Amino acid sequence: MLALPGCLRAAAFWTLVYSYCLLYACTALIKLFCSILIRPRRTFRRTPREVTPTCLNDPFLGTHCYVRIKDSGLRFHYVAAGERGKPLMLLLHGFPEFWYSWRHQLREFKREYRVVALDLRGYGETDAPSNKDNYKLDYIIVDVKEILDSLGYTKCVLIGHDWGGMIAWLIAICYPEMVTKLIVLSFPHPTVFTEYILRHPSQMIKSGYYFFFQMPWFPELMYSVNDYKILKDLFTSKSTGIRKHNFRFTNEDMEAYLYVFSQPGALSGPLNHYRNIFSCLPLKHHQVTMPTLLLWGELDAFVEVEMAELTRVYVKNYFQLSVLSQGSHWLQQDQADLVNTLIWTFLHEDRFRIKD
C-alpha cells in the first residue's frame, strides 16, 4: 500500500479529529439530556467540598512544598519525601489525577531517593493559567526542566503515568541529559500512539475523550454533572476502575480526588493540556537513549497493549516491558506492590548499556 503524502495524511488526521469530536459531543449531549429527563434535580446537584480530606495532609506521604519558576512565573506545588541530597525521583501524574496518585511510591522509594510528586501546570494547588494556549506541551516540558533546576538537581529518575507518561517521553527525547532512567506507565512512545491510532479504529474509540476535550466548556460540564459521576466511575467502575481489591479506592481516597477537581475552575487546566496535544505531534525527533522501563496493564481500558511492544523500536538502549496480569490503567495505584517491585528491580539492574 502506497503511503499518503504528508499533506493528505495531515488532512485525513484533522478530518478524523474533528469528526470524532462531533460524534463524541453528540453522544455526550444525548447522555446529558437523558440524565436531565430521568433525574433533573440530581443532574446538576453538587456536594460542597470545602474541607481538605485528612489523607492529603498525611505526614507519612511527605512534605507539601512550593516553587516558583522563572520562565513562566507560575507557582508549582509538589509533595516531597526522602532526605535532601539523595538522588531525585520525579513523578508525573496523569489525568484525572494529581500528586496523590503516587502515594504508594512516595512511601516506598523515600528510603533511597528524594521523591517528588508534582502537581502539573493547571492541577491541584499548582497555578492554572486561564488561556488554553498556556498548556502547550513545549511549555510543560520547560516547566519540568526548570523545576529540576529549582530543586538543585541536574538529573533524575523520571517516572510518568498516562498523560504524565507522554510528558516523560518528550522530556527524555528533548533533554536526555536530565534523565538517568526513564519509567513510563500506561502510555506508549508518542510516535507509536499517533501512528497506531490512525490505523486502528478500536484505539480511536478508546481515545475518544482526547477529541471530545477539544471542545470549550462542554467537557467541564459533563465531568461535573451528577456530582462528578464520570470521575468516580473512572476509578471505581468494573470496566475502567481499579481492579485489585487491596488497592481499591477508600471513601477518603475518592473524596480526595473529588475535593481537588470540584474546586472552582479545577477541571479547565487539566483539560487544556489535551486541547494542545496536537500542537507538537508528530514529533521531529524520536529516539530515547536512556534505559527505559515500560509498565502496562493487561486490562487497560484506554490504551491497547499492542502499542507497548511497538515502543521498543524507539528506545536505543536497554528496554524492559512488563505487562501486568489483571492490571488496569491506574497501575501505580491498582498494582502498587508489584509496580514498586518492578521499579526497584529496574533501578538496580546492571545491564544498562547502549545497543550496538
UniProtKB/TrEMBL annotation:
Keywords: Hydrolase, Membrane, Transmembrane, Transmembrane helix. SUPFAM superfamilies: alpha/beta-Hydrolases. It comes from the Eukaryota. One of its GO terms (molecular function) is epoxide hydrolase activity. The chain crosses the membrane at residues 12-38. Coiled coil: none annotated. Residues 87-332 form the AB hydrolase-1 domain. The keyword Membrane applies. It holds the Pfam family Abhydrolase_1. Belongs to the AB hydrolase superfamily. Epoxide hydrolase family. PANTHER family: EPOXIDE HYDROLASE (PTHR43329). This is AB hydrolase-1 domain-containing protein. The lineage of its organism: Eukaryota, Metazoa, Chordata, Craniata, Vertebrata.
